[in-house]
Amino acid sequence: MIKKIDLVYNLALEGKRIDDSILIELLELDSASKEASYLGEKARELAGKVAGNKGKIWASIGIDYQTCPMNCDFCSFGEEWNLFEGRHEWTDEEVVEQVEKYVSEGASWITLRTTQYYGIDRLNVLAEKVRKEVPGDYGLVANTGEFGKLKAKEMKDAGIDTVYHTLRLGEGKDTKFNIEDRLATLSSVSDADLDLAYLVEPIGPEHSNEEIVKIFKTGLDHGAVLTGAMARVLIKGTPLEDKGELSPERLAQIIAVTRLGAGTNAPDICVHPPGRQAMEWGANVVVVETGAVPRAEKECCGDWDKFDSKKARKWFEEAGYDLESK
Ligand code: SF4
User: Fold this and answer.
1) What residues flank ligand 1, with Cβ below 6 Å?
2) Strand, coil or helix: what is 150?
3) Is 93 exposed, middle or buried (0-12, 13-18, 19+ CB in 10 A)?
4) Domains, the chain
5) Beta-strand relationship, 139-143 and 64-66
6) Which helix (H) or strand (E) holds 164?
7) How far is the CA of 26 from the centre of ligand 1 (A)?
């Protein structure tokens, strides 16, 4: 296995595609084994080479807090779960203020995250305002619902350069979305020359290695430049509550496999929720988030899970990454 990991590492460095069967084999390792530790070590070494050893912060603002009729089985916003009532939206001024804060803390990306129902046109107006009022060298990301080619082009014109979108694990079963619609949005992103950020998500203990690899490869096939893994956060009262959560060791192993599987093609590998071991096993991007968070039972009034830019920078330093200056 050690030789096989070395071989995969070399292929990854050359940007070659790694066979699904090999990635599945790496995911089958016991995450506490010495082979898995070696996998983590090589993934971290690869992060040093393909990501220039740069630790980066992905800052996300959940703009509209409202129940959602799509009722995805893992999401606290699903209206059927009755977890909250009411609706709250951040004003444009509040968003701009939060963006200024994140940019001053050294965030590499600012994500404007909305539900399906906020509307792309409104999001574009907000993006233009953010670009105008907050200068800086940061990526502006949209994380919203489905859209076609025309809207994707308008997003680009509004100053958005990256879209976060995925085909999720259990899409069409744990969600009411049509798989083809999600794939069509992914194609619209690449057609408009927007960068695609795509995590394998939301991963629970019940997902097979085959499913994880299939979803991961879908992202690469759509040109993802940032990938990685997001574990499902257990929300009491949602239908998937009983399925539990991944261990931090397993999440770190999945991160290591995505790092090797992505190679030079997607140099930024993100872990969410942030994990020390996952950063030591190849993740060079972590998320700080605020506002409406589908992983929270209430609207989040500060930093989700008390994870802020200061903590992110400290963890990156401890994992040996270099940080972009603030
Ligand atoms: S994940 Fe998105 S679409 Fe699904 S219920 Fe939550 S807000 Fe709605």
Assistant:
1) 68, 70-72, 75, 77-78, 115-116, 294
2) helix
3) exposed
4) 2-321 (3.20.20.70)
5) unpaired
6) strand 162-164
7) 31
Tell me the pLDDT of the chain (326 aa) as tens digits. Answer: 999 999 999 999 999 999 999 999 999 999 999 999 999 999 999 999 999 999 999 999 999 988 889 999 999 989 999 887 778 899 999 999 999 999 999 999 999 999 888 999 999 999 999 999 999 999 999 999 999 999 999 999 999 999 999 999 999 999 999 999 999 999 999 999 999 999 999 999 999 999 999 999 999 999 999 999 999 999 999 999 999 999 999 999 999 999 999 999 999 999 999 999 999 999 999 999 998 877 676 666 678 778 899 999 999 999 999 997 66
The owner of tokens 């690469």 is: 220
User: Which atom of ligand 1 is closest in space to residue 175's alpha carbon?
Assistant: 4
CA 25 from chain center: how many Å?
A: 24
Please state the pTM of the whole predicted model.
0.96
The number of the ligand 1 atom at minimal distance from the alpha carbon of 71 is 5
**Distance between CA atoms of residues 14 and 17, nearest Å:** 9
